[in-house]
Design goal:
The complex is a heterodimer.
Chain A lengths: L12 H9 L5 H14 L6 E4 L1 H17 L9 E5 L26 H8 L3 E6 L33 H8 L5 E6 L5 H7 L2 E4 L19 E6 L2 H11 L30 E5 L9 H16 L3 E5 L7 H16 L18 H12 L2 H14 L5 H21 L5 E5 L15 H7 L4 H6 L3 E8 L5 E8 L4 H14 L11
Parallel strand pairs in A: 2-3, 7-8, 7-9
Antiparallel strand pairs in A: 1-3, 4-6, 5-6, 5-10, 9-11, 10-11
Helix pairs in contact in A: 2-3, 5-6, 7-15, 9-11, 9-12
Chain B lengths: L4 H10 L6 H22 L34 H5 L5 E2 L2 E2 L7
Antiparallel strand pairs in B: 1-2
Classes of the chains: A alpha/beta, B mainly alpha.
């Protein structure tokens, strides 16, 4: 029998697990291979921190467990974390000058859980500052480049995460999604990503942006690989995250191969309006056809408050951000201004120096809408419409099992393409915000290619706790198409 | 409704952010641009609708979890102060606040 040897970076998580278990690869050589690639592709700007010594030590421990027969489910498979997750062994910056050089005294729960599953950490990944952005251009350190076209953005805020997977610098990564920050960069870089139901993965140790929206999730090349990681990421964290749900861990791979015969896919008319670019529409509609061929039925539905989700989200998220970010005052950790006259002046100058433009803008919006006399008109009103948006989804799920549409109105835009216009970024979030506000699980699945050969993502949205079904639908699409296994040129 | 330069100054003070004059000006234009799209939200009739804080509360009761008020962590003062800008004898240093 002839064995076909693939380079480790072309194997996904599932195949790496098997190769490591069978001793075809060691964890140390696998980690070294990916580290070498990460260093060779440093120009892409995916990583903010690498530490070979730490990584190799983790890989050695994984090899020892593999040899001893005590291997975890993902033993020895390399992984990198969005720099929003705090880590003891690597610096954590959240993409901000405010936290330059910061070392957390503890690991985030998600970091801990994936390490307990045997995964080896390659490093920390670039992102928009405090996860605020849609292009990774708000990173205080450097932008990340889209490997499909280095003059374009990779999306955000988990931009570095998406770049690392698309350029084969890591087989899988973590991301966080507040208003689309897993789905949109996954879409722009042609990879697969899932945001689970709000509350399924612990937020403990995720640098907080908007606490009622932030949710961790995996990004990888395939739905199967995402399912493997997600199975080790979720579960209640009763002592550390008061919003984590009492919902047991789940094996999200269990129904990957289920038939889609009779599956009702809701297609919201509001996601296919005039704002949708033709190339994205064509790719998404072609995928819906594939679903029909797989036995699914398309059902027209309506999500009437889709457009309203933009102002609602951009009131609620900045309000929560302004409160969360008040902890950055130059006292207990992070940056402190060199010169100041008194305590309040120290706060003002520290925060002026430490935060970038977008973060300041959101702090200002948030502070305003929470201030005396404006709370009811803005924040409370937004929370009420948030309920109406969540109810709209429940109404829609009476007629369908999951919802499909585009992730974003266009493919990845050029670096600097939105210029100094934050509103252009906000408006481009229109299709990811509704599921975020409702706390529903959502995915981006490679759906083909559009203008300039850039990847297009198909968004799948499920009802609460239906991650396994979403992954099943994504996996079946990936059995019938090969968009997720395409590779950018030169890599 | 439009914000004025005075509003920006007031909010910046509440948020403890020092803004340079050109920054304030830019912020004013951008925030007013943003509030133009917020107008659509203000016009929605939400009478009788309960605000939604934990999204999953749409389908089930969500009680914020409380834990016993007991010591659960060992003392990690040194690790916790390792990234502090100014520390002396195990205390965080701030500028003098009481004369």
């Amino acid at each position: 029998m002839q064995t076909v040897h693939h380079a480790p970076h072309d194997l996904g998580v599932a195949k790496l697990v098997a190769a490591l278990r069978q001793g075809e690869l060691s964890a140390v050589e696998t980690a070294q291979h990916f580290l070498k690639r990460a260093q060779a592709q440093a120009d892409l700007g995916a990583f903010l921190a690498l530490d070979e010594e730490v990584t190799i030590a983790q890989a050695r421990a994984a090899d020892a467990r593999l040899a001893a027969g005590t291997a975890g489910p993902l033993e020895g498979v390399p992984l990198a974390h969005k720099d929003i997750f705090v880590t003891r062994d690597f610096p954590t910056t959240a993409g901000s000058k405010m936290l330059k050089g910061y070392r957390s005294p503890f690991d985030a729960t998600v970091v801990q859980k994936l390490a307990a599953a045997g995964m080896v950490t390659l490093g920390k990944l670039n992102c928009d500052e405090f996860a605020m952005g849609s292009s990774n251009e708000n990173s205080a350190f450097h932008p990340a480049l889209n490997p499909w076209d280095r003059t374009r953005v990779p999306g955000g805020s988990s931009g570095g995460s998406a770049v690392a997977v698309a350029a084969r610098l890591a087989p899988a990564v973590t991301g966080t999604d507040t208003g689309g920050s897993i789905r949109q960069p996954a879409s722009f870089c042609g990879i697969t990503g899932i945001k689970p139901t709000y509350g399924r993965a612990s937020r403990y140790g995720m640098v907080a942006f908007a606490s009622s929206l932030d949710q961790a999730g995996p990004m990888a090349r395939s739905a199967e690989d995402c399912a493997l990681l997600l199975s080790s990421m979720c579960g209640p964290d009763p002592d550390r995250d008061s919003t984590s749900l009492d919902r047991c861990e789940e094996d999200f791979t269990r129904s990957l191969n289920d038939s889609l015969e009779g599956l009702r896919i809701g297609v919201p008319s509001e996601f296919f309006g005039t704002g949708l670019a033709d190339d994205v529409r064509a790719a998404v509609e072609a995928c819906l056809k594939v679903y029909e061929e797989l036995g699914a039925k398309l059902v027209p539905i309506s999500l009437p408050r889709t457009e309203l989700s933009i102002p609602v989200y951009y009131i609620i998220a900045p309000a929560e951000a302004s409160s969360n970010l008040s902890r950055f005052d130059g006292v207990k950790f992070g940056h402190r201004a060199d010169e100041y006259t008194d305590l309040v002046d120290m706060y003002r100058k520290t925060r002026a120096e430490g935060f970038g433009d977008e973060v300041k803008r959101r702090i200002m919006i948030g502070t305003y809408v929470l201030s005396h006399g404006y709370y009811d008109a803005y924040y409370l009103q937004a929370q009420k419409i948030r309920r109406m948006i969540a109810d709209d989804f429940q109404q829609a799920f009476r007629d369908c099992d999951l919802i499909a549409g585009p992730v974003a109105p266009t493919v990845a835009w050029k670096l600097g393409g939105h210029g100094n216009d934050p509103l252009a970024d906000y408006l481009a979030d229109i299709f990811t915000l509704p599921a975020s506000l409702a706390g529903l699980p959502g995915m981006s699945v490679p759906a083909g290619f559009g203008e300039g050969g850039m990847p297009v993502g198909l968004q799948l949205i499920g009802n609460y706790f239906s991650e396994a079904r979403l992954l099943n639908a994504a996996h079946r699409l990936q059995q019938a198409t090969d968009f997720h296994s395409r590779k950018p040129e030169g890599l | 409704m439009s914000l004025t330069p005075d509003d920006i100054a007031r909010i910046a003070n509440l948020a403890r952010l020092e803004l340079q004059p050109d920054e304030s000006e830019r912020m004013l234009t951008q925030i007013n641009g943003f509030f133009n799209i917020v107008e659509a939200m203000r016009a929605v009739d939400t009478s009788g609708v309960e605000p939604l804080a934990h999204p999953v509360a749409v389908i089930q009761d969500i009680a914020l979890r409380l834990r016993e008020d007991v010591v659960s962590e060992p003392n990690q003062r040194e690790a916790n102060q390792r990234s502090a800008p100014a520390v002396e004898r195990g205390l965080f240093l701030v500028p003098k606040v009481i004369e």
